[in-house]
Amino acid sequence: MTSSDYNLLTTLLQIEDQNRCLRLVTEVLCEFYDDEIGDFRVRHNPKFTYAPGDIPIMLVAHCDTVCYQPVMRIGACTANDGVSTAITNMDQAPLGADDRAGIFIILKLVAAGYRPHILLTTDEEIGGGGAIAAAESIATPDIKFILELDRMGSNDAAMYDCDNKEFKEMLRGYGFTPVSGTFSDICFFAPEWDIAAANLSVGYYHEHTPWEMLVIKEMENTIKIVMQILDNVDNFPYYKFEPCEYKPSYYQHYFYDGDDWDYQGAMDDINFRAEMSYIAHKEMTKKKKKKKKKQEDSHNGKRSNS
Ligand SMILES: [Zn+2]
Question: Which of 170, 180, 211, 301 is most solvent-facing, going by the fewest CB within 10 Å?
Fold first, then answer.
């Protein structure tokens, strides 16, 4: 990692407020997107920013973190493998690499000249408020699939309730292992737009805890692979959202059944997220039903008038 990359990364980690992060990154996107991509304009509102691009793949990351205090001192540590370098918050508090690492990756890709569709959200950690707003107000984008950059670890592709076999195979071909997960923003986009989505590992570990760390090498590896995927865009079909047969993840509750959890309260945290996403999902389904009924009513009204 170059020193200017390191500066960019630590600057992103130290932005305390999610709205400020969203605004700053949006300004950068406007610079790159608005001039170059004629008919489109970056759409920014308090809850999300959407930059339509000319590569029909959408990248997603969220601006909020679970940091309960400003990130002041970032330092190096050794990753779990005992060899790789990671960075962490030296004040024994969360680092916020979840998901500023995803934001960093997007900025790096844009700086390298890639113009995929980009969606930046807020409030992911408290039930996906930004994602719900985006799913409701953005018309189905003309894209082949969605990649979120917001997963712990080095090579997961979290699929949640999306079960498109060909899409999974494609991701395996790039070294990612499809896994299930509790919840993230794409849980709203994939079913709403009928487009397959996966959440890729970006190299952070122990997120939401004082031991959160970001393994630089693993984050850089994800950047490299996403570049390859974007380069290869012409060779992919459109991958449809195919819901799992089994109960969606947000209806499940998780129970402690081992001793490998990183910190006390980990299960509470996971259950809280599952609960929040369940509530949010119910809310969206209700709204969708209402919207559909309204459309039907007005349709029927028109017919009875004619
Ligand atoms: Zn996250």
Answer: 301
